[in-house]
Amino acid sequence: MKTKGCGFSGKVLHVDLSREAIQATPLDFGLARKYIGGFGLTVKLAYDNITPGTPALSSENPIVLGAGPLVGTNLPSTSRVYGVTKLPSSETIGWCGAGGMTFGCSLKQAGYDHVVIHGRAKRPTLLKIVDGHVEFRDAEAFWGKGIEKTCEGVWERWGWPAGILCIGQGGENLIPFSMAYIDRMSTLGRGGFGAVMGSKNLKAVVVKGTRGVEVADRKTYRTLSNEFLGEIREYPYLKEWQDLGLLKTFPFIPRETYEKIKKRRAACVSCPVGCKDVVQIRDGVHEGFTACSSSVMNLLTPIMYGFKDYREGIKLIAQLDEYGLDMFEFFGVVGLAGTLVEKGIISSNQVDTHIKIDSYPSMSHWAAKIAFREGLGEVLAGGFKHIFETFGEEARALAPPVVKGMHPYAGPGAAVPWELFGTMELGQVLDPRGPHVAAGGSPTYFAKRPLDVFPRHMKRMGVPDEAVKRIIPPPHASHEKMALKVGRLLKYSHRWFSILASMGICARAQVNRFYNASRCAALYEAVTGVETDLEKLRKRADRGWTLLRMANVREGMARKGDVLPEKWFETSGFKDYLTEEPLSRREAEHMIGDYYEEQGWDRHTGIPTPASLESLELEL
Amino acid sequence: MGRYEIRIDSDKCTGCLRCQLACSDVYTKAFNPSAARILVAFSGADCTIRLLPECDACGVCADHCFFGALTKNKRESQK
Fold this sequence. Notes:
Structural class of chain A: alpha+beta
Structural class of chain B: alpha+beta
Helix content of chain A: 25-40%
Largest sheet of chain A: 6 strands, mixed
Strand order of the largest sheet of chain A: 2-1-6-3-4-5
Distance between the termini of chain A: 35 Å
Distance between the termini of chain B: 14 Å
Number of helices of chain A: 24
Number of strands of chain A: 17
Radius of gyration of chain A: 23 Å
Oligomer: heterodimer
CATH class of chain B: Alpha Beta
Strand content of chain B: 25-35%
CATH architecture of chain B: 2-Layer Sandwich
CATH topology of chain B: Alpha-Beta Plaits
Order of helices and strands of chain B: EHEEHE
Shape of chain B: globular
């Protein structure tokens, strides 16, 4: 049995774009153990490299990328890639995560677990990393091109697989809701990661390698892996997930329509489910148009905004993907602009084309205006913050709910009209980067479930028995109703996310359902050789999440950053998960206090207590 | 000639590279797609899968394919 170095590639690459200099340092294995790797270690490197108060689009703001120790193995769905930086939408230090497609695996094969990117290149640059060799390539030929064209150009030149992280025109033009894309399908999304890359003149990072990822205990690995893969093969809904992906959960279009346009399903490296889509429009004026996406569900999102023709929805989202723009934020700001025109707050002579949110020609026009910052598009490209600055309090009053500078995509007035207030919904306020639901998964996800199934799910997530009693406290008397403490449960959602993300496992529900916390501990030990039990894994995961909190406390973003939007509590606002009664602000504020307390943070300030920092051995 | 006949249906391939990972693990004791004896070229809309000359048709690639792109049949002489 091997030990040191297994699972990890063993090096961190530091890149200075300003000086076109690199330094590869050995991975600190003690630190890797302490933070699991992947997400946790990316947070640690970000904490160490970000100077407090640095503006997001300053050359001083570093980008830290990382892939966990399971990435590159053949364990199911282990390809996740994380990026941590100061984000322009929220000015918080936030994480972005993506299904790694080939990027995560290729980064490990190239010899690195993490890349820390400093400075600003003097000209558009493509960073090429192949087997430990790093080149700063002139990216003039790619600058001005969209995501798809950039990826095609890179693969034409350097072959497939080459993992590509790149930006489109949105990132180049520093739009605070621009995203970075991996292999043109996955996104390092919400918050403006694309703009941070753009501010560095960094068009793309391309990785390739041949180095191999070894595991420490091959015998145990094989036993665990075979048992695990057998369970997945036996899963009765596997075929349905493989055939339909997220459309199984969100049937926006009839199955027959999907079958007609489905060209191919696509998967990240090692994933046995495959939730990505390649579709082709088969009829109408857009016949023959092909689109690749993180999910067909994304391509069909315009239907939720009133598009009648799904083919036009696909065309619009493909256009936004090409620019590298966050579709939820796009619809949020354009929708608000339409309202401001109706109310006369935006003068009609500023609008060269009518803003109609359910019209493809109108939305396509405004997508281009925003991406290239033309006319009124220049104001909208600045996001809600810039719209409020330009049009004042009247605009704020008419806006949809805004959290940390962004439009939540789940809840009242949002694209996904979930009305029950579960962990994902609350998590939109308590995630450091702002409204994103990926880290807040729990049994409260999507459909309402009876409380008696919660303990089984919580056990899978590694929630200790004593915490289960706090999350679903036993009634004091027979006439009392059962309660669900959503704030307390969210702490364990974040811990579970931190475990998966730090190891490199996908957190999507159709995949993480096959994992449980004990299995994660056993797999981590088999791959890395690092002694790990459930308790150790929990503590390491908490350490990473708490350090991310401290990174933001250092930015002055504790309790005052976790603000619930008033519009969540208006007439058609959120409802309590269990009672389905309208949720009050007071109740939601109480949940935030519960969340802090469960994390070991001060209930009122939201700052981790000295005792909790000490117990996590966080010396800051 | 190996034990199995490996059948390829590249229309079903998702580009997950599970085949290349499994193959490289068997023959190099490390997960290294570039060292595999099978090669997937996946451009999204199109995909080709090729067994390389050194492939001895052990069938591990098909064992690890979850999408039906690779299947194996025992050769007549091996039955």
